[in-house]
Design brief:
The complex is a heterotrimer.
Chain A lengths: L1 H5 L1 H19 L3 H22 L24 H32 L4 H11 L1
Helix pairs in contact in A: 2-3, 3-4
Chain B lengths: L7 H24 L8 H18 L4 H5 L2 H24 L13 H6 L6 H28 L11
Chain C lengths: L1 H19 L17 H11 L5 H9 L1 H22 L5 H4 L1
Helix pairs in contact in C: 3-4
Classes of the chains: A mainly alpha, B mainly alpha, C mainly alpha.
């Protein structure tokens, strides 16, 4: 039971990963696929943030010039990396939404199967 | 733009309460980024959020004229130049690229005696650059994505 | 399609749960992620950089090349959106 409690965050992250993969593969609407991609990215970000936690650590801010003692703070490196990962996620989402807008203007739908049949009809 | 009937209450709440508070909070997050949680990316996102709120809820507001699309592109480019230019300034001062410690910021400290370290000033300058770039890019992207769609222009 | 999605999702979850037994416990101070360069940043920020927020110090000074590339990424995304969605002859009227 102790083992399971120590791994509880990993199980939640695994469920989020599954939800993301299901949204990306199992859904037909391209918008829902994009939402699945975002859920997957959230799972990865949560995984890294979970790895930064140190028992008894606080936020990595040194108040009033105190000397940093590594045992008192959580690991700042995953936070920095995930900050950049969030920015990449925003950029990917923006470009994907732009393409989706263009696809909707072209075909009048964002459904994968309907777009494919429409493309076959046009050629 | 389509003609929307602005509610007086919405007008008041958005323009007089929410947008100033959001923009002020964004500036706070930027300025205190070195001493509390915050920084360039977050401040840019919050500032863009305030602008987007005023654009989505008010028709024909000042934000649309003040931050037109060419100006948003210019803001983003200015932010990039501020960041990369700080690195080049460090090279001209004799150090490595983006090594702010060697830039002589004494003139800034003479004008504004705030007692900051050299690296602190360099970090603040590049945070401002990041904020401008993120603010301009996000506002531009949302501006393009929320453009109304005319069905007669569909090409397919 | 739907069955494939559910199968893949269950497989991913099961794989991650199985792999999590080899991952370190939550909050383990001796986890491999917590003994590398991360503690160095906390202990050296005070004399190297001189600002309070260690995350800002790492983001904007130790790893400023990373942040520069990051800013270029989001700027490039904005330019890409502009070129995908621009409509000739209409933008000068709207802008």
């Amino acid at each position: 039971m102790e083992e399971v409690a120590a791994r509880f965050p990993y199980f939640m992250i695994a469920i989020l990963l599954g939800v993301g993969v299901w949204g990306m593969v199992g859904k037909r609407s391209l918008v829902k696929k994009l939402i699945g991609l975002n859920v997957l990215q959230s799972a990865i970000i949560l995984f890294f943030i979970n790895g930064s936690i140190r028992e008894g650590g606080t936020v990595p801010i040194l108040f009033h010039g105190e000397h940093g003692n590594a045992e008192d703070f959580v690991n700042p490196l995953p936070h920095v990396l995930m900050l950049t990962a969030i920015v990449v996620a925003v950029a990917v989402t923006a470009v994907a939404l732009a393409f989706l807008t263009r696809i909707y203007r072209e075909f009048g739908t964002v459904d994968e199967a309907e777009i494919l049949s429409e493309m076959e009809r046009q050629t | 733009m389509t003609d929307r009937h602005d509610s007086v209450l919405l007008h008041f709440v958005v323009r007089a309460v929410m947008v100033p508070a959001i923009l002020l909070f964004g500036l706070y997050v930027l300025v205190h980024g070195d001493a509390s949680p915050g920084g360039g990316f977050q401040a840019g996102a919050i500032l863009a959020g305030g602008l987007i709120l005023s654009r989505l809820s008010l028709s024909g507001d000042e934000g649309r004229r003040l931050f037109s699309r060419p100006r948003l592109v210019m803001i983003a480019v200015l932010g990039m130049f501020l960041y990369a230019g700080t690195g080049v300034a460090a090279m001209l001062a004799g150090g490595d690229y983006l090594d702010y410690g060697v830039i002589a910021f004494e003139s800034i400290d003479r004008i504004l005696p705030i007692g900051l370290g050299r690296r602190e000033i360099g970090i603040f300058i590049i945070e401002v650059g990041v904020t401008l770039a993120v603010f301009g890019t996000l506002a531009l992207v949302v501006d393009y994505l929320t453009e109304p769609h005319d069905p007669e222009e569909t090409e397919g | 399609m739907r069955a494939l999605g559910i199968m893949l999702a269950v497989a991913t979850t099961a794989l991650f749960v199985a792999a999590s037994w080899d991952l370190p416990d939550r909050g383990d101070p001796h986890a491999p992620a917590n003994v590398g360069v991360g503690p160095e940043y906390i202990e050296r920020t005070e004399e190297d950089i001189g600002i309070e927020n260690v995350v800002s110090a790492v983001l904007a000074d130790y790893r400023s090349y990373d942040t520069l590339g990051e800013t270029f990424v989001i700027f490039t995304a904005g330019v890409a959106v502009l070129f995908v969605l621009i409509r000739r002859g209409r933008d000068d009227r709207q802008a």
